[in-house]
Amino acid sequence: MKLIKLNAIDSTNDFIKKNKLLFSENLFCVYTFNQTLGKGQRGNIWNSQPFKNLCISFYFKPNDNNVKKLFFKLNMLVSIKILHFLKSYKIDDLKIKWPNDILSADKKIAGILIETSIQRSQIIDYIIGIGLNVNQLDFNELSNASSIKKIMKKDYDLNLFSKNFIEIFSNLESELQSATVDDIKAEYLKNLYGTDSILKYNYKGSDLKGKITDIDSSISVKMIVNGKINIYKAEDLKLIY
Ligand code: BTN
């Protein structure tokens, strides 16, 4: 896979968005340890202390665009891949927080932002942005954030960590083709926070307690609330943790 390492950049996702036509590859990666204006989900900012963490984006343009439910599969697969990678580093108590955050010991250590381009109502390519908190210790007011170093009490070599991390994405397209949506979903649900316990959420401004039973797509989740199964959209639901 082609790798582009930048000394500093506003956002690796935006770098790809602006420059993707300069590359002929269908899969390549851009990363930095110094992202100055990172973007998060729901229009948030992704803050990352310089030279402490990995900020990385993969450009992915599938050769075969007819794979059923590709976006749904990709969304789940990216979280699963990160979780498995962190498991190989023996990071404690890993969980996926729906739709795509990675928690360790109930704190967020990685976030994912997947952006798409659409042509004639079809997604033609994906920018998979991942922020991984590696060696940062201080998160100021972000009480739910943590890093691998904070949890494991040791420092990680960012270059080596990044090299190993990038490798797990090298077979992305063949994995998406060979695994069924049910296979991927089963693995995703197995590692999803809130499937075996009742958690507290904020839904459109009010609190509710629910247990996740299934996910329907990357944007909606099924939960049992007061004995009834309801469907909730990601944009309306926020886990209180
Ligand atoms: C979130 O949890 O809100 C998603 C965070 C995604 C952050 C990554 S860092 C690399 C890539 N470039 C960006 O500007 N954002 C993503």
What does this structure look like?
With 241 residues, the chain is of the alpha+beta class. It has six helices and 14 strands. It has a seven-stranded mixed β-sheet, with helices on both faces. The protein has a five-stranded antiparallel β-sheet with strand order 13-12-11-10-14, with no helix packed on it. Strands 3-4 form a two-stranded antiparallel ribbon. It is globular, with a radius of gyration of 18 Å. The protein binds biotin. Biotin is lined by residues 11-13, 35, 38-41, 44, 46, 55-57, 101, 111-113, 129-131.
What class do helices, strands and sheet pairing give?
Answer: alpha+beta
From the alpha carbons, calculate the radius of gyration and give it in angstroms: 18 Å
Tally of alpha and pi helices: 6
Order of helices and strands: EHEEEEHEEEEHHHHEEEEE
Task: Let me know the number of strands.
Answer: 14
Q: What is the strand content?
A: 25-35%
Major sheet details:
7 strands, mixed
Bound compounds, each kind once, are: biotin
Question: What features would you highlight for this structure?
Answer:
binds biotin; 5-stranded antiparallel β-sheet; 35% strand; alpha+beta; 7-stranded mixed β-sheet; 24% helix; 241 residues; single chain
Task: Itemize the secondary structure elements and their pairings.
Blueprint: E1 2-6, H1 12-19, E2 27-32, E3 38-39, E4 45-46, E5 54-60, H2 70-88, E6 94-97, E7 101-104, E8 107-119, E9 122-132, H3 148-152, H4 158-167, H5 172-178, H6 181-190, E10 199-203, E11 206-215, E12 220-225, E13 228-233, E14 237-239
Parallel strand pairs: 1-2
Antiparallel strand pairs: 2-5, 3-4, 5-9, 6-7, 7-8, 8-9, 10-11, 10-14, 11-12, 12-13
Helix pairs in contact: 2-6
Bound molecules: biotin.
